[in-house]
């Protein structure tokens, strides 16, 4: 039985847009050998939203995340942050942070030093850094491990440190590239709850990448289902689960009943009569 995330945010039209991707294309190589990793991708992501890019390996979700982060630049299209085109800006000029699958922590540093590293590099004063690190330790519930080296703590604790470090500079958007994939099942379930709590408490827009359908359905305000470089459907978990737009989305999301039939008539404006195995059924939508 899949747990579907309950919407915690109002509909998109009621809030300001944080990120817009408009007609994004990303190709690698040239000529006949060129590979189109993203093909005319357009999405709107609102402030304070937990938004998930969901799809199989190689579908383009991490490529899209890297374009938003500034690690790569689009071949065509725009990326807007609160209405301003940032597609040509380098990563350090974007108010966006990223949490990677491998966390990228410094093993010789303490938990507190790792959390404070980014804000220190930004030139924050010592007292401001100390205060912010203390706030982040409290947020991720790791005050008692502040002086422990990150090489001496568990995978789940390392995950919390990576999140705290990324959240410390108060980015407008936090990108998460399959951050739970290396964790065992029990810890992964615990961190799903933790991630959702952190997003709700900070009010920061989270853009989460995963190939795990259950993970996406359980955590997200909205989901974009991707395949072969294109966005196939964007909607709330329950919308995508109950009303997939095509066969790929239905199969990929999980439980589906796909029957072959022949259209024989129209019952109403949004209802059609379909003959299936000798019987006539009414299909809606």
Structure description:
The protein is of the alpha/beta class. Among the domains are: 1-95 and 202-254, P-loop containing nucleotide triphosphate hydrolases (Rossmann fold), CATH 3.40.50; 259-285, no CATH class. 30% of the residues lie in helices and 29% in strands. It has helices at 61-69, 111-121, 126-139, 155-167, 185-202, 213-219, 237-242, 247-253, and strands at 17-28, 35-46, 50-54, 76-81, 84-85, 96-99, 173-177, 205-210, 222-227, 230-235, 262-268, 271-276, 279-284. A six-stranded mixed sheet has the order 6-7-8-3-9-10, sandwiched between helices. A four-stranded antiparallel sheet has the order 2-1-4-5, with helices on one face. Strands 11-12-13 form a three-stranded antiparallel sheet, with no helix packed on it. Strand 4 (76-81) and strand 5 form a beta hairpin. Helix 3 crosses helix 4 (155-167). The longest helix is centred in the last third of the chain and has 18 residues, at 185-202.
